[in-house]
Amino acid sequence: MVDNDGMTDSLRAQPTALTTFDLERIRNGCSHALVPDQPAARGYRYFDLGGGATPFYLRRLSAGPILGSVTLAAPIELTSGDEAERGARALARVCVSIGMASISWERLFDQDLCGGVWADMIRQALEAISELELLEPDDCPICSAGL
């Protein structure tokens, strides 16, 4: 049976480093963030699959038998708008996956996702996201340009 407590209640039940400020910053974010300096030190692994696929950074998450990730997808250089090189200061879209499901930015706080192991996975994802330099729609060069 799924626990339908609200997201804030589920997070309170788990040990977490999230603050109310972090949660509001994520809620107000547009899903874009700056790639952190030294991404590997923050748990992100760089993947460049070649061909037409854009590179990405991936941070793995796990809770019990469930695996997930926070992905910094398609990083672009802020100055040129070109595909960013590994380790370059860049802007990327933040994506969350749990198991085979991609969780949209808007659903990160959805209470239907907050029961059991899913609550732990969402908490881990939110903690990883809170460590990023998130952008708000008006400050984002992608969102403010309507791209």
Helix tally equals 3
Through-space gap between termini = 41 Å
Helix proportion range: 10-25%
Mean pLDDT: 84
Rg on CA atoms, Å: 15 Å
DSSP strand count? 7
Plain-language structure description:
This protein is an alpha+beta fold and 147 residues long. The protein has one domain. Helices cover 21% and strands 27% of the residues. The chain is built from 3 helices and 7 strands. The protein has helices at 7-13, 20-28, 116-130, and strands spanning 32-34, 45-47, 56-63, 66-77, 90-98, 101-103, 133-134. Strands 1, 2, 3, 4, 5, 6 and 7 form a 7-stranded antiparallel β-sheet that branches. Helix 2 crosses helix 3. The protein is globular and about 45 Å long. The model is unreliable at 1-15 (pLDDT under 50).
Q: Which descriptors would you attach to this protein?
A:
alpha+beta, 7 strands, about 150 residues, 3 helices
Annotate the secondary structure layout.
Elements: H1 7-13, H2 20-28, E1 32-34, E2 45-47, E3 56-63, E4 66-77, E5 90-98, E6 101-103, H3 116-130, E7 133-134
Antiparallel strand pairs: 1-5, 1-7, 2-3, 3-4, 4-5, 5-6
Helix pairs in contact: 2-3
Can you describe this structure in just a few lines?
The chain is an alpha+beta fold.
